[in-house]
Design brief:
Distance between the termini: 63 Å
Low-confidence stretches: 1-22
Shape: globular
């Protein structure tokens, strides 16, 4: 067998191993949850599971949605620097404060409705957008862009 034949067979073997056959797939990246604030807990803390639909507190990397009319002053009590994918406000009246958080790429902060205030400090991990579809979003916390582009629409 020639060297070229061995390389060809080796390549075919590798292609077979990584082929998308059930039970032999490459690992998929983790999918993070979308969690919605319902304010059902005994305090305003993000870590209180009862404050989120399904009574499950968010985990790092999750997408956070703030909606409703209960406990409108949520406090990020997660460790400073905890990373979340994005934050969206679906209703107005919220005033969010607390520890510094890291937000992911894309539309990292979205105001879809109402007047809301975001006072927690933010650190970017990539180019990001703050989007106000409707209403007013007031940012009073610092935003550390870490040299990444920040677009406001």
């Amino acid at each position: 067998m020639t060297i070229l034949s061995r390389v060809f067979l080796c390549t075919l073997a590798l292609l077979h191993i990584s082929s998308p056959v059930e039970g032999n797939r490459a690992p998929m990246p983790p999918k993070f949850a979308t969690v919605t604030w319902d304010g059902g807990g005994i305090n305003n803390n993000w870590s209180t599971a009862a404050n989120w639909s399904g009574d499950t507190a968010p985990s790092a990397g999750d997408i956070l949605i703030f909606n409703g009319t209960t406990r409108l002053t949520p406090v990020n009590d997660f460790a400073a620097g905890t990373s979340f994918a994005s934050i969206t406000f679906l209703s107005g009246g919220f005033s969010v404060s607390g520890n510094t958080l890291t937000l992911g790429s894309g539309v990292m902060l979205n105001n879809a409705s109402g007047t809301n205030t975001f006072a927690a400090p933010i650190t970017l991990v990539s180019a990001s957008t703050i989007n106000v579809d409707a209403g007013i979003l007031t940012l009073t916390g610092t935003i550390n862009t870490a040299g990444y582009a920040l677009t406001c629409t």
